[in-house]
Amino acid sequence: METDRNEPEDLPDYQGGGIVNLMASLQTGLGGPVPAYAPAGLLSPESVREHAQVLLLVIDGMGLNFLQAHPEAACLNAHLRGGLTSVYPPTTASAITTFITGVAPQQHGLTGWNMYLRELGSVVTVLPGRARFGGVTLGEAGIDVAALLGHTPFSELIGVNAWTVSPAHIARSDFNLAHLGRSRLLSYRGLTELLARIVGVLRKAGPKFVYAYWSELDSLGHREGIWSEASRSHLLELDRAFEAFLEQIRGTDTRVIVCADHGLVDTSDAERICLDDHPRLADMLVLPLCGEPRSVYCYLHPGCEDRFDAYIEHEFAGIARSFPGSYLIDSGWFGLGVPHPRLRQRIGDRVLIMEGNYILKDWLIQEHRFEMTGVHGGLSRDELYVPLIIAGDTL
After folding, report:
1. Cis bond before residue 89 (omega within 30° of 0)
2. How far is CA 296 from CA 40, 113, 173, 341, in A?
3. I want to staple 88 with a disulfide (CB 3.0 to 4.6 A). Which of 20, 21, 218, 333 is the partner?
4. What are the backbone dihedrals phi and psi of residue 278, each rounded to the nearest 5 degrees, phi first?
C-alpha cells in the first residue's frame, strides 16, 4: 500500500498546538512534574500560575468552525484565543481521556467508542463500560476498571486540590471513578446546576483545579445535526450562561478555560454506508467493526490483506482511505513517544478513514438500529479543530 500518498491534510498537533499540550501547560502551571508533552503555545504554564485557581470546562462537540460560524455567540467568541487540534481519533472516548489523564492516546490507549480488548476477549463500549453485545457493566462483572485501564488521573499529577463536576447520569460510572484520583466529585442535573456547582467550588478558599464537563451540545448534534437550529439555539444558551457565569465569579482570581473534545459533521442518508450492503467485505472480518463510524478499525482474517485493500480501492473510491494500523502508530497519529503496550491490538489490521461526510456502520444481531445526523471521529477540520477560550480576572 502506498499510504504516504493518502495522508490526510490535517492531523493532530502534539508538538504544542493540541489539547494534550493544553494539559501539559496546566500540569506544569499547577505544580506538577514535567510532562511528556510540550506546553501549549496559546497558554503558557506561567500564565496559569498567575491565578489562584483554574477552571477547565469541556463542552462536548463544540468544534472551532462551528463556534466561529456563529458570531452571535458573542461572549464565547470574544474570549476565543485560537484553535487547538483534538487527538486521533477526535472522539469523546479518546479526547476526554486525554483531558483526564494529561496524555495522548499513544499512552492512554483508548482508541474509540468500540474497542477490542484482547485481555477481555471482547469488543467493549469503553465509556459505558459494557461489552458491545450488552449485559452488565465491567464493574458489575467484577473487573477493576482502574486496574484494567492503568491510567494515572490528572488530579494525581498536579500540586493543588482538584474537583470534578460531572453529569449525574455518568458521575459514578466505572470510567469516571477510575479517573477521579484525588479529585472530589460533584454531580449536577442541567446547565443552571452545573454552573452553580462550579461557582460554589470557586468561592471556597485555597488554590484548586476544577474540571467540568457538559455533554448536551454533542447529544443535540447527534440527534438533530450540529448545523441544526436546535444546536445553534443551545450554543446561544451556553453563551448567555457563560457571560453571566463570568460575572458571578468576578473577584475570585480564576483562570477560566473552555475547550472541547471534538467537533462534528452532519451526514446524510446517502453518506451512511452499512456493512450489510458489502457482504464480501464482511466475510474478510474476524470481529465486528471497531473504533468509530468515521475511523473504522478492521480486524481481518489472516491472508485477506490484499483482497481487503483491493476491495476498498475499487468499491470505496472517494469514500474511504485504508491504512495499516501499524502505519498510524509509526506516523504519530495517536501521539508521541512510547506507545501503550496494547495500542497495536486496539486499532486492527486496517483503519478506514472516511472521506467527505461518509460513515461506515455495522450492527450486531440484537442491536437496535438507529441513525445519527451529526457524527465525529474523522479528520475533517470541522471534527479535528476545537476552540481554546480563555477568560478570568485577577481582582
Report:
1. yes
2. 29, 11, 26, 21
3. 333
4. -130, 65
Cell of 239: 453563551
Strand partners, 167: 188
**17 pLDDT higher than 70:** yes
Integer-rounded Cα Rg, in Å, for the chain is: 21
* Mean of pLDDT values over 98-115: 98
Please report the domains of the chain, with CATH numbers, ordered by start residue: 19-265+380-392 (3.40.720.10), 267-373 (3.30.1360.180)
Q: What's the burial of 169, exposed, middle or buried (CB within 10 Å: 0-12/13-18/19+)?
A: exposed
Give the model confidence (pLDDT) of 156-169 as tens digits: 999 999 999 999 99
Q: Which three cell numbers stand for residue 307?
A: 483482497
Cβ atoms of residues 53 and 210 within 8 Å? yes
What distance in Å separates the CA atoms of residue 73 and residue 59, rounded to the nearest whole number? 14
**Best CA proximity match to 69, nearest among 263, 218, 294, 215:** 263
Using pLDDT thresholds of 50, 70 and 90, give the confidence band for residue 393: low
Q: Which amino acid is at 251?
A: G
- Give one DSSP letter per residue of 298-310, joined into a string: E-B-TT-HHHHHH
Helices within the chain (DSSP H only)? 19-29, 45-49, 64-68, 74-78, 92-101, 105-108, 145-149, 174-178, 191-202, 216-224, 229-248, 279-283, 305-315, 325-330, 381-384
Task: Kindly indicate the confidence band of residue 362, based on its pLDDT and cuts at 50, 70 and 90.
Answer: very high
| Residue 255 region by backbone torsions, left for phi larger than 0, else alpha for psi between -120 and 50, else beta | beta
pLDDT value of position 392: 83
Taking each continuous run of H as one helix and of E as one strand, the counts in the chain are 15, 18
Give every strand in the sheet of 350-354, ordered side by side: 130-131, 122-125, 114-117, 290-291, 295-298, 350-354, 320-324
* pLDDT above 90: residue 321: yes
Which 8-state DSSP code applies to residue 120?
Answer: T
What grid cell was written down for 233?
A: 439555539
